[in-house]
Amino acid sequence: MKKRALITLGLALSLTMSACSVQTESEAVGDNTAPSPAPQGQGGITIELLGQSSGESDLNIIRDQLTKNGFNVKLNLQPDYGSFKTQEDAGNYDISLSSWTTVTGNPDYAVRSLFKTGGDYSKLADPEIDKLIDEAATQTPDQFSETYKKFEQRLVTDKAYIVPLYNSLKSQAFNKEVVDEKSIRLSKSRSLPWEELDFVDKSKRASAPLILQQASSTLTSLDPIKGNDGSINMLNTNMYVRLVNLTDDDVITSKGSLSLNHSIADGNSEYYFLLRDDIHFAKVENKAAVDSGERVGAEDVVFSLLRAKDKNSVPDHRTYTLHEHIKNAEIVTDLQALEAVKQVGGNGTVKEALEKGLNAKIAALVADKNQANNKEGKYQVVKLTTTEPFPQVLNYLAHQSGGIVSKQQVEKINTYDVATFDKNKDIPYGDQNTVTEGDKYNNTLYASGPYILAYKNDYEGVFYKNPGYMKGTEHEPRVSQITVRFIKDADSSLSALRSGEIHVYYGVPETKYDIVKGESKLKLQTLPSNGVTYLLFNTKNREVAKSEDLRKAVLYSINQDEILQFYKNNKLKAFTTVSPLVKTGNELKADPTKVKEYLTKYIESVKK
Fold it and tell me: N- to C-terminal Cα distance for the chain?
């Protein structure tokens, strides 16, 4: 998320009580000062465990493990995100079932928003944690392993701010009688690229929709910087082109991006991007995709990056912390400047790096995107400067929030004053209501990517190929229409795949693998993901917020081996959200002796 999907993407999930009826927000807020864990019964301590119904299996395992170690567990089980979010915001939990997917392939994304003071989703305020996150961010992979190891030890071993559970596999299943197996990719971090999808029967490209699915029909925002969750990550990734992409194994590449090449200058603070000239923004007319006639160019890149880093550029900006290391973005028109700048590592100049593999060398740099002509050697170059050396900035540019929007169109739509924005009357660019069938439908999207959303309803969203996207190249979309069906639960999604109602099921649960494998027409793809599930402690108004001993008693109650056995070893061990990305050697081992020791210390402190 932020697929970051907190739950694929990156939102921390907390959930609520099964024994009670759903509380209103005002009723919920009234409970948040109640003293939670307190000695009661036969020395048992009550822990309130928050969770959604989708995580019921995990919640039952955790409840049983805590109960076995002397806790009384109160389950807070809610049917949907809205219900649990009300409880989470009210603070009505001690521990919540949470998950995070690092969709950028870099460890800074796995920690900054979640655990740094002031982060988008952070509930912590620990100066030592902050220091380690910032230190690791400036380091290269061969340097930051030890720093992230110290970070993990502070987060889990020393302070017990979270309890790690497991690292998930990433998976998808598809109908191999319909979808060309060679056209469908499963990437460790990147969402499914639609432009490569194709039918087995190529004659269907223009006449039939290729049908995918996702759970949520309510889309946070189709403005790429205003959402970072499972409802829009895949959609925005395929609607907006970015300066760079990730390969399937998380290596930064210019392939299939707006950049023909990119280069890092010596010092790791200046980044250069040579833009291609064959992408136009798509727009929607009469619910069909048409070429707007506007080229995607450097002024759009500069506009997009500067608004991405500015917390106040839009109301409810949800991704600015991902781009806070951007100091400036500018168009370069001085060709001699590129010749004077050395590449990082001393391997020639930036100009030489940007020219690598080009049919026409750089003869001139132009400021006006309409003057660019790659065949004649006229190019546009954008220079990005970071606030400090920060090699991981490229991973953030590959995130969906780094998607390039039309400066002209966004400024035309966003005429409101950000400080006085009124959601009841102001209609921002990307508002899902503008693409939803009904009275408010007025599609003003301009898509720089391979597809554009024409319209949606509660049943499905219909996307059409951008007619101005890399025409005649290997990256031109194959299929004219992609339809995304909104199917809430896993059983229904699997049934739809088996019956042929959908062609691809992205994110198959481990418990459904055997069913997919048993169908001759279906193919399952899996690989270790960057998704980690963990328990997050409440940091306010509860005893677990104040007592490190109580948190550690919970920590050492959790037995990861038992959880992996339940999932038939289709899960992997994890220590923090960094685990899939950096091998630190840290591991959590259940220890009933430590549980008893920390519980005793906590109870003694309460008696004083």
Answer: 44
Residue 162 is assigned to a structural domain of this protein: yes
Residue 223 and residue 116 in one domain: no
Question: Once rounded to an integer, what is the mean pLDDT over residues 155-175?
Answer: 97
User: Does an H or E element contain 205, and which?
Assistant: none
Lookup: tokens for 354: 């940007």
Contact between 92 and 14 (Cβ < 8 Å) = no
Do 91 and 134 belong together in one domain? yes
- Tokens matching residue 350: 């930036």
| Global pTM value | 0.84
What domain range is 100 assigned to?
A: 25-168+530-607
Strands 270-275 and 280-285: unpaired
345 and 395 assigned to the same domain: yes
Token pair 């759903």 in the structure block, residue: 22
Which of 391, 419, 435 marks a domain boundary?
A: 435
Residue 246 has pLDDT above 80, yes or no: yes
| Distance between CA atoms of residues 434 and 357, nearest Å | 42
A 10 A CB-CB count for 459 gives: 11
What does the pLDDT look like over 34-89, one tens digit per residue? Answer: 444 444 434 579 999 999 888 899 999 999 999 999 999 999 998 877 687 788 88
Does residue 298 fall inside a structural domain? yes
Q: How far apart are the C-alpha atoms of 64 and 78, rounded to whole Å?
A: 19
| DSSP H/E element including 501 | none
Write the pLDDT tens digit of every residue in 432-465.
999 999 999 999 999 999 999 999 999 999 999 9
Q: Answer yes or no: is 498 within a domain.
A: no
Q: Which of 402, 435, 468 is the last residue in one of the domains?
A: 435
**How many Cα atoms sit within 13 Å of 168 on the Cβ side?**
23
- In the chain, how many domains are there? 2
User: Which residues does residue 213 pair with via DSSP β-bridges, in sequence order?
Assistant: 485
DSSP 302: H
Of residues 301, 337, 306, the one with CA closest to residue 320: 306
143 and 204 fall within a common domain: no
246 touches 105 (CB < 8 A): yes
- Tell me, yes or no, whether 292 and 427 share the same domain: yes
Nearest in space to 534 (alpha carbons), one of 167, 4, 188, 169: 167
